Amino acid sequence: MSRVTLSVRAESFRLAEVFTIARGSRTEASVLTVEAESEGVVGRGECVPYARYDETLDSVTAQITSLPVILDRSSLQSLLPPGAARNAVDCALWDLEARQRECRVWELAGLPPPQPEVTAFTLSLDSPERMQDAAARHAHRPLLKIKLGTPDDMPRLEAVRAGAPDSRIIVDANEGWTAEVYRELAPHLLRLGVTMVEQPLPAGEDELLAEMDRPLPVCADESCHDRQSLQALAGRYDMVNIKLDKTGGLTEALALKAAALKNGFQVMVGCMVGTSLAMAPAVLVAQGVAITDLDGPLLLAEDRASPLRYDAQGVHPPARALWG
Fold first, then answer.
1. I want to staple 29 with a disulfide (CB 3.0 to 4.6 A). Which of 13, 19, 84, 169 is the partner?
2. Is the dihedral of CA 311, 126, 163, 175 positive or negative?
3. 279-316 tens-digit pLDDT
4. Cβ-count burial of 110 within 10 angstroms (0-12 exposed, 13-18 middle, 19+ buried)?
5. Known catalytic residues?
6. Is 271 within 8 Å of 294 (Cβ atoms)?
7. Which residues have CB under 8 Å from 36's CB, separation 6+?
8. Given the DSSP bridges, would you call strands 41-47 and 24-38 parallel, antiparallel or unpaired?
9. How far apart are CA 92 and CA 324, in angstroms?
10. Is 183 in a helix, a strand, or coil?
11. What is the pLDDT of residue 22?
12. Which residues pair with 37 in a beta bridge?
């Protein structure tokens, strides 16, 4: 372990449009940027504190500033629980070590050079008419993710399919349905060509999924945080959504991916609404997974310097100037 000086600051990045899910709306991405400095070399990481997990900018900042100055990635795993604070510090330490050794993070992790991955693009919750318009504007994208989670979602589903007849569609209910609503909607999801549904029932009430037919893959998001989550998901879910702000960083995210695949789960790699700095480590985890959902920067009106590149091939690995 070495002496590391951590600094943390809150930053806001404007969204291109209002972003709405079942829990509320936002007009900006509020993030924490962490810098880890050792012997004149600086690594960076980003996290998005999430109220769903009782996190705030202040509470996560307090966790980060409580850490000792003698620190490395291994000791960090026991010093902080899974969550946003550990994520930002863990990713900053990966970046720091790569810069110290003058190599890339994927080389440190023993991974092959990353390639572009096709990513979903998220349509936020809105009226059916506005969601159809949004779907039509983005109908060129191969994979659309629809934010739902109300008892009145059928018109929205129909509208999005009408607006983007050729795109693959996945659905995120954000814990907003009951078992009865999901049973009613499932046949229509299939009819409209939906290929996956994410977190249809609230975490903590998802044991009912083990008793229900799953005619299309069901993905655990709020029900899956780290490797400790996996045992309870067996028989309820077919896929897990790995987000670094839930796992507490790249270190645990890579371990969770390996464990999930070993236990027969498909893998999705997702994100909170953050900048390219937050997405960059997740691109490494997303290599070869079933679904990549790293569209945070596509939702922003402003981003980091040296942002991630998005094109027809998908989201590209980060440039060294950004991270890793």
1. 13
2. positive
3. 999 999 999 999 999 999 999 999 999 999 999 999 99
4. exposed
5. 147, 243
6. yes
7. 4, 5, 6, 42, 43, 44, 45, 89, 92, 93, 95, 96
8. antiparallel
9. 9
10. helix
11. 64
12. 5, 42
